[in-house]
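Write out this protein's structure.
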Amino acid sequence: MKAAMKKLLQGFKNFFADFGNAITKGDIWTRLSLIFMGAGYFGRKQYIKGIFMTVFEVLCIIAFVGFFLPYLLKFDTLGDVERVAVFDPVTMTDVVNDYDNSLLILLMGTMGIVFVIAFIFVYILNTRAVYRLQVTEEQGKHINTLAEDIRRFANDRFHITLLALPALGVILFTIVPLIFMVFVAFTNYDENHLAPSKLFTWVGLDNFISLFTTSATATFGYTFVRILAWTLIWAVVATFTTYIGGILLAKLINDKLTYGKRFWRTCFVITIAIPQFVTLLLIGKMFSNYGIINGLLADTGILEFLQSIGLVGEGLSYIPFLTKPGWAHIMIIIINIWIGVPYQMLVATGILMNIPSDQLESARIDGATNRQIFWKIIMPYYLFITGPSLITSFIGNINNFNVIYLLASSGGYVTTDMSMAASQAKEIDLLITWLFTLTNDYSNFKMASVIGIVVFIICAVFTLLTYTRMIAGDKEEEFQ
């Protein structure tokens, strides 16, 4: 990790050092390229490149001045003129003034900032490239023609050609929305400031303070602590129950004493073939207050037994599987085991069948028991192979929207905690489902963005820490 960071910092240092050399040591053509990006190529008789970079520069200036600049000029306030509609009795229609749209200003301003940063990056790259042409010419070396450069990008630098379009897609559809979401967290964009009818503006760190503060009128701090704790508990338990359960089920099915291996695999694979939302909605209905499971338990007397030992309230005619805290938390984890274990079983089956047989045989000859073989050979090998997958599963469970939301919806869960209800949350919510409720049902985009940032930080920190400790280093030789 430290080596990678050191290498990255060194790369940035070299990047700007080369640009500085181009400015201080460049000839007239190199320095002219600081104003006209194609000048350096014209000076080295690379006219097509020169025309291309000149046209690129002109188009960027036109796009910036004509499209992005009007939004960037209002970016500091996100607009001053609110929308006003006045009824015109002559035309019998509403006449709308030339108003500011805060959401559009924020979005286009964000894109404008990214556009400027991208242009500066290309500008520096172009200056460095022109300076390298100058050095090549001064050393009397051959300067590649356009055809030679094209062949170079089609051969030894083909990876750059292939990555160009995906990198552009990542910038447009990942980086820009992320930056926009981060900016929203510093505004008062909510149901009282919905664009375009209303304006919203910057509020600094107020939303972050609200998330960690509890008062008589604001309960986000109270709610956040509880939902964060349940999110982490859920992610850990859901990940490791399905992970360990999948391994144990795979070993059980693949055991020499187990008959009908194909039949048992088929039974569990069926749960993967059925769409998850169908399974969750069906199970939610089955375990609802007046579902089939509660009917069977009432008829068999189990409900009365649970009431007698105090697990179910005396006044209830059902077991609150998905409608009461505690019961709902446990049931959600159990249902997730049923959904997640079959997939992990398939993964484990493929890995267990590829464990080097000579290691297992050597261990048996040395007198190792099955338990020792499992913990000393099988588990280290399996953990090494599935390390990245385990991290991905944990992050996926932090953001596991389907299981929580669909079970809560189909089960009819209603919170009894008024402090959580005041923050539009339920006891079984994860951070991601809470975020969804805030945006979809209450248009509280500002707090949802803050929660989104918190989720990102948690996932990023956990991924970096576990990845570097779990699968870093050269461990392949241990399993040869």
